[in-house]
């Protein structure tokens, strides 16, 4: 068996328009597909991260709140690799997106920080 890459990561969001604005207009992911699914009463938005990876945003009516602290089983956070973390932090700041203080990953020695999407899902920047 060869699992060669991550094809997509799916995220359930509570507010379709707010999350679309954040991921498309602020983070800059391009729209691959955008569909309303009447049978499920939700929106499904597929976004291109790079040539091989997509984010899927699902926006159902009244999704349950995401457990956070203490953390529950399941997706802990989503991490994005960046070349220049300080520059990326400044770009996010100009968009009104705050990042946690910059720190160094104990195991890799690389710089990292976190910021949050509109539903408080932790998103990581990692050099």
Task: Tell me about this structure.
The protein is an alpha/beta fold and 127 residues long. The chain has two domains: 1-63, Roll (2,3-Dihydroxybiphenyl 1,2-Dioxygenase, domain 1), CATH 3.10.180.10; 76-127, 2,3-Dihydroxybiphenyl 1,2-Dioxygenase, domain 1 (Roll), CATH 3.10.180.10. Helix content is 17%, strand content 35%. It is built from two helices and eight strands. It has helices at residues 16-26, 85-94; strands spanning 8-12, 30-37, 42-48, 54-60, 78-81, 103-104, 111-116, 122-126. The chain has a four-stranded mixed sheet with strand order 1-4-3-2, covered by helices on one side. β2 and β3 (42-48) form a beta hairpin. The longest helix has 11 residues, at 16-26. The chain is globular, with a radius of gyration of 15 Å. The two termini are 30 Å apart. The mean pLDDT is 93.
List the helices and strands and how they pair.
Elements: E1 8-12, H1 16-26, E2 30-37, E3 42-48, E4 54-60, E5 78-81, H2 85-94, E6 103-104, E7 111-116, E8 122-126
Parallel strand pairs: 1-4, 5-8
Antiparallel strand pairs: 2-3, 3-4, 6-7, 7-8
In summary, what is this structure?
By secondary structure, this protein is α/β, with parallel strands linked by helices. The protein has helices at 16-26, 85-94; strands at residues 8-12, 30-37, 42-48, 54-60, 78-81, 103-104, 111-116, 122-126.
């Amino acid at each position: 068996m060869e699992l060669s890459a991550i094809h997509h990561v799916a995220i359930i969001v509570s507010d379709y328009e707010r999350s679309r604005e954040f991921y498309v207009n602020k983070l800059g992911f391009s729209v691959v597909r955008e569909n309303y699914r009447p049978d499920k009463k939700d929106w499904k938005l597929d976004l291109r991260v790079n040539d091989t990876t997509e984010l899927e945003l699902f926006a159902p009516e009244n999704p349950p709140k995401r457990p956070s602290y203490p953390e529950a089983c399941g997706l802990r956070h989503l991490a994005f690799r960046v070349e220049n973390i300080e520059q990326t932090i400044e770009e996010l700041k100009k968009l009104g997106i705050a990042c946690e203080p910059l720190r160094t990953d104990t195991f890799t020695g690389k710089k990292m920080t976190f910021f949050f999407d509109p539903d408080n899902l932790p998103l990581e920047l990692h050099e």
